[in-house]
Structure prediction request, 267 residues.
Amino acid sequence: MPLDQAAISPMDRGFLFGDGVYEVMARVDGRVRAKSLHQQRLAASLASIQLDVSVEQIFHDVDRLIEKANLESAKIYVQVTRGAAAVRDHAFPVDVAPTVFLTISEFKVTTYGGCTAIVRPDIRWRRNSIKSVSLLGNVLLMQEAKASGAQESILFRDEYVTEASTSNVFVIRGTTLVTPPLSDLILPGITRHLVLEMAEALGITVIEQNVRVDSLADADGIFVSSSTRGLMPITELSPGGIVGHGQLTDTFLVLQSAYDERLRHHD
Prediction:
């Protein structure tokens, strides 16, 4: 239905508590990028918050939405909340139907040149491996970046990089790619997964290890990754100054080229 005809109860727990999870997918040239990986991650997020919903049915409805919209390139948003209960109560309600909300909109692939990121403490909760709709920390961090004239906010906790406000973080040292290992503090990004696959196929050494925030300024290159931004190179940090020589490294350019190709050919 048209968006202005959709209605959700004000008692919905997604609205009241942020009690829900979501996925964002990119459809490029008629193909949803990494669709099966998004299905797996949505299932994992739902299981993590003890919400029993058919992911198969949700993606059947995604297919219906794509067919109805008839967009060759689109951004698809999927949100599932625990639903609306008669009374606001923190504990899970009994016999409440989950709310499934899907939207689709036009999307254009963007190839980024050098971008700026601010570096800030990670103020979010500690279960970032769940793709939760509770994103106030992310919102505040991204707004601070925008207000500073930057495009992202790279985050750290206890002196180590976690991720960015909307993306995973990669550091390039010579021809080696370094990224923090998955944990409760880090979302298992779909694009992160693809970058690791591509790097292995290209013979680029990958190390998954903790990255000290005070070592970022000494990196040869930094980039962040997400489903809608792809690979976005960071050539300046605040604080931290210019990254490397302020240019896109050969390693990044090889990965960016491989990603542009993979974007259109990964199921």
Observations:
- The chain has a mean pLDDT of 95.
- DSSP finds six helices and 13 strands in the chain.
- The CA atoms of residues 172 and 221 lie 5 Å apart.
- The longest helix spans residues 55-69.
